[in-house]
């Protein structure tokens, strides 16, 4: 991280007051949510009782952690507009697919987690592989959010970074342990509005400083990377295929837009858990679709400030030109806040950053404790105990996960662009899982043995590509290694799964109803509208069509 003297924000009493009020609200929500927790289903899945607008905003806020806020602004500073692919290509189509096609299977089967769905479809070995890899991924990603949360406290208060890590962890731990998923979700709704209120003014002030949009275009065109940073396609610097625009487009559409994106949004329990907390099937299907609407506009308050920082902040300009200096791309937002915001506004902006990291970390912890308790401890370690035991276990697991995340924060500290680290993790864990899921959901012949063997083979392939890229055997700058790794993991998983399925015994059709598309009656795949769910604007397929059309327009306008 950059030196304190460069990044220190000149906060005053009014800024600290705003931050303090926010923490009072956060802990208050945790305390109030605790009163609604009477059993493990309340703690882990909010008793499946929440309305779609709440779960929809929580769905998007859970993803507005370090990955989005600092990682995407770092990408904006480094690559420019091609970063929008993480939203318009790499998120929204998959979110709509989750709502329209996959949520009926998740919600309709009444599973408590994504690994539990794997258990019913493929049996214990695939379930165990998925549960362990998911739990590992969550504590690694929680470490990223925790590290960045701590850097804000470090910059603001001057505390040593590891004191900041522990302090930040205790705050998040407090409200998750008190109120479980409900506390996380209601705080995520609050955090969504705080984040927008913090970043929108920063974007407007930043654009004013560089002379509006036209001024930003002129300055970016004259900076290293040039005019290519102003159009989303072909995104050669981002993909790593600098000599081939065609390969870059293929890499972005297949590697990011299909494998990494669908792998993340459709199988990642962090996100799916929010939809599972909905009050009925219609609300569960609408959850990711409602989230898609704010998601498509997030780039304008995250990526554009990064681009502004790269041309308006002298230290970052120097880093971009020479690759040396006391700051990195991860510092883009902090530097912009330091230079542009007056007191009061600075407190709100810092609160927005704290909110984003807490939302991200809380999402990781609330899904980690569910999978650890339901899928690993109850299933394999301590079986057949009463519900109170698993409720208490869930709270202790949250404490343990937080302690491990403090350790994994050290790994995150070693990356100058955290998106490189995150995309690498997604290529390991999410890409092969998506291949297994999609094949198993649409091909009834896929066998339990293929479920776990394909998953392990895909993950091993992604790790191999990572090792080859790190050792210089493959020359893949940017995030090319994670795109190639994800694509390779997906293909290998599919091929291995097909081959293994052809030589092993499948489950009988009677055991696959509700788990395989062709064996699930249409009535079970469509929502039963609950009371107050009858309006046209509550129809998942229509809402998804509107969101997709808007996304295509945005791609054309900024392409």
TrEMBL record:
Protein name from the UniProt record: Sodium:solute symporter family protein
CDD domains for the chain: SLC5sbd_u2
Taxonomic lineage: Bacteria, Bacillati, Actinomycetota, Actinomycetes, Propionibacteriales
Transmembrane region(s): 13-33, 53-74, 86-107, 128-153, 159-178, 190-208, 246-267, 288-313, 345-372, 393-415, 421-442, 449-469, 481-503, 541-558
Highest taxon listed in the record's lineage: Bacteria
The UniProt record lists the keyword Membrane: yes
The entry's keywords: Membrane, Transmembrane, Transmembrane helix
UniProt main location, coarse: membrane
UniProt KW Transmembrane helix keyword: yes
Organism: Kribbella deserti
Topology of this chain in the membrane: Multi-pass membrane protein
Family classification: Belongs to the sodium:solute symporter (SSF) (TC 2.A.21) family.
Any Pfam family matching the protein: SSF
Localisation: Membrane
């Amino acid at each position: 991280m950059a030196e304190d003297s460069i990044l220190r924000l000149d906060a005053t009493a009014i800024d600290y007051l705003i931050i303090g009020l926010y923490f009072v609200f956060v802990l208050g929500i945790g305390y109030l949510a605790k009163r609604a927790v009477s059993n493990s289903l309340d703690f882990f899945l909010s008793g499946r009782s929440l309305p779609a607008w709440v779960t929809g905003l929580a769905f998007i806020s859970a993803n507005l952690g370090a990955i989005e806020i600092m990682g995407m602004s770092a990408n904006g500073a480094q690559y420019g507009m091609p970063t929008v692919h993480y939203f318009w290509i790499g998120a929204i189509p998959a979110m709509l697919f989750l709502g329209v096609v996959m949520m009926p299977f998740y919600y309709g089967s009444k599973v408590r987690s994504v690994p539990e769905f794997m258990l019913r479809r493929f049996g214990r070995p695939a379930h165990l592989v998925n549960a362990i890899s998911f739990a590992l991924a969550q504590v690694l990603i929680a470490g990223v959010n925790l590290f960045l949360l701590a850097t804000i406290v470090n910059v603001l208060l001057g505390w040593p970074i590891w004191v900041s890590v522990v302090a930040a962890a205790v705050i998040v731990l407090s409200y998750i342990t008190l109120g479980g998923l409900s506390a996380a979700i209601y705080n995520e709704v609050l955090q969504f509005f705080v984040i927008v209120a913090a970043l929108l003014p920063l974007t407007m002030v930043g654009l004013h400083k560089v002379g509006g949009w036209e001024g930003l275009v002129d300055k970016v065109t004259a900076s290293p990377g040039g005019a290519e940073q102003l159009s989303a396609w072909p995104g050669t610097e981002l993909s790593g295929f600098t000599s081939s625009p065609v390969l870059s487009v293929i890499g972005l559409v297949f590697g990011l837009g299909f494998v990494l994106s669908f792998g993340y949004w459709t199988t990642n329990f962090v996100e799916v858990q929010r939809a599972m907390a909905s009050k009925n099937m219609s609300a569960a299907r609408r959850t990711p679709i409602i989230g898609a609407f704010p998601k498509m506009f997030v780039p304008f308050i995250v990526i554009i400030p990064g681009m502004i920082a790269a041309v308006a902040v002298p230290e970052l300009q120097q880093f971009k030109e020479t690759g040396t200096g006391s700051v990195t791309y991860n510092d883009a937002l902090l530097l912009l806040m330091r230079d542009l915001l007056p007191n009061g506004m600075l407190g709100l902006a810092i609160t927005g950053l704290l909110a984003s990291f807490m939302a991200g970390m809380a999402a990781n912890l609330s899904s980690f404790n569910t999978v650890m308790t339901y899928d690993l401890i109850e299933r394999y370690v301590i079986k057949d105990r009463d519900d109170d035991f698993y409720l208490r276990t869930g709270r202790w697991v949250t404490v343990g996960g937080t302690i491990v995340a403090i350790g994994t924060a050290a790994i995150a500290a070693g990356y100058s662009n955290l998106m490189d680290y995150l995309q690498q993790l997604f290529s390991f864990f999410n890409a092969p899982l998506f291949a297994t899921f999609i094949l198993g959901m649409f091909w009834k012949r896929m066998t339990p043995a293929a479920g776990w063997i394909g998953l392990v083979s895909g993950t091993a392939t992604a790790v191999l590509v990572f090792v080859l890229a790190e050792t210089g055997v493959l020359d893949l700058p940017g995030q090319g290694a994670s795109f190639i790794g994800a694509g390779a993991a997906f293909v290998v998983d599919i091929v291995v799964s097909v081959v293994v399925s052809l030589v092993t015994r499948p489950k009988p059709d009677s055991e696959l109803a509700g788990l395989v598309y062709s064996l699930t009656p249409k009535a079970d795949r469509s929502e039963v509208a609950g009371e107050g769910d009858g309006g046209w604007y509550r129809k998942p397929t229509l809402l998804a069509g509107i969101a997709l059309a808007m996304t295509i327009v945005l791609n054309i306008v900024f392409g």
